[in-house]
Amino acid sequence: MKRRISILAALLVLATGTATAQYNETNNLFYFAQRSPQSNQLNPAFFPSAFYLTLPGISSLQLGLPLSIGDIVTYDSAQSANIININNVFDKLGDNNQFRLGLDVNIAGLGLKIGPVFFDANMQVRSQFNLGIPVSVINTVMQGNVNDDGTPIPEVTLLDGNLFNMQMYLETSVGAGLKVPMTGLTVGAHVKLLSGILNMQTDNTKVTFETEEDYETVRAKVYYEIMGASVLPIDSSFSEMFSNLNVKDVAMNLIDLNGGNNGVAFDIGAKYDLGIFSFSAAINDLSAGIHWQKNVVSLTPKNGQGTIEFDGLDITNLLDHGNINGDSLAQYLQGQLDGMMPQFLTDSGDYWYSIPTKLNLGASVNLGILRAGILFHGQWDRGLLSKSTYSSFGEALSDASANYEAVKNTFRFNTTLSAGVNLFNWIEVIAGSSMVYDGHSKITLDNFLNPGVGIILTPATLIQAYVMMDYASSMYLTQMKAFNFKFGFNMLIGSNRSSRIL
What we know:
Elements: H1 2-14, E1 51-54, E2 57-64, H2 69-72, E3 73-76, E4 81-84, H3 86-92, E5 97-114, E6 117-133, H4 135-143, E7 155-160, E8 164-179, E9 185-201, E10 206-211, E11 218-223, E12 226-230, H5 247-254, E13 262-274, E14 277-287, E15 290-292, E16 297-301, E17 306-310, E18 319-320, E19 323-324, H6 326-337, E20 342-345, E21 351-353, E22 357-367, E23 370-381, E24 410-423, E25 427-437, E26 450-457, E27 463-470, E28 482-493
Antiparallel strand pairs: 1-5, 1-28, 2-5, 2-28, 3-4, 5-6, 6-8, 7-10, 8-9, 9-12, 9-13, 10-11, 11-17, 12-16, 13-14, 14-22, 15-21, 16-20, 18-19, 22-23, 23-24, 24-25, 25-26, 26-27, 27-28
């Protein structure tokens, strides 16, 4: 049995690599935090022995960057100065680079234990923002559209979705846990109502650049679909979106379960104690995502797929007595770009957009004031689940409502080794390190150290404060590309200072 556990732990460690832009929505250090009720959000089978209230405020900030400060600014010893080396910046960029930002805000939360049963309820606003960096566009501009041997590259994909997306929603959850009598087993579950606030994305976008073998014709094909939905009506000029803001209407739209922007998610978890050792597992945010049905808009080319074809230009048509004829130039550009001009549609049907589903598998050893743990965390990023009038390259569909394309999954995972110590019965210090893979970058071993550290303070039986920094991608600030920062306050009632997790 011990040998099997050792082999499993080794495989979990070896199965993970590093990524150039690590981003994780959950803070793994909280998983083994014995004193914080927030560990219940990572596994609903974890619950504290005290009645608690979560105080409102910003609770979590997640950041992932494709480049560090050190990648952009380098020290030139010959000039004894810091310089920006553009070539070094481009060398550091990969094929799929994204700026990722996440922000969570606690509104309210509480938990109550009655015998072997625990009940909890939480409300928070969650938001994610992703911005892609189209490196293929930069490479094409710098290197051209020819191979090293001088032959033309028939087709270059400049953009292919993942350019921009953001989602903000209100998450209201209720849950319960049960410690099964006469066993070491604890189980728990959450049911979450997801109320959409804002969604915007360009998942259905593509731009290609084609070159004929004779070099006489160059063709660009463009299709874009900027989809959006909001709790407020979206105006094409955005001028009236907030001018008639009505708090009551916003609240009614958030709780509109019939034709609103809603979804449902589930958490399930279990924990088994074997004295010193314990094992746990949880699946969080098991959901189809949010069904955006209200105030849906789209921005697409008015003629479907747009095409620009360039096979030479008679410059004499643009000259007037040696000067450029502005009217002729504008007419030429308008003719080229007319097919790509946007149309703003306010009756754009509906669509689904996912939220990441997470998997946690943990094991820990508890030696009183000291403990250690290993956690495997996986996350599926799926994005847009259904699209509207056109496919990703502009082909018209006969039945838009039946267009549920195959979901493109991105699986990002990491393994965290952590250790914690309880001091003076009111201080808990946790430190750890993660090996991370973001689903895009090549797995390497050149940056496997992603440290984290946190502290939970309960100086009185009533107030608790916690601060956690996880997934710091480097020990040096100038080399850091990602981190997950979590902080907040709780009120604990009816227990001692330790408020340990059962």
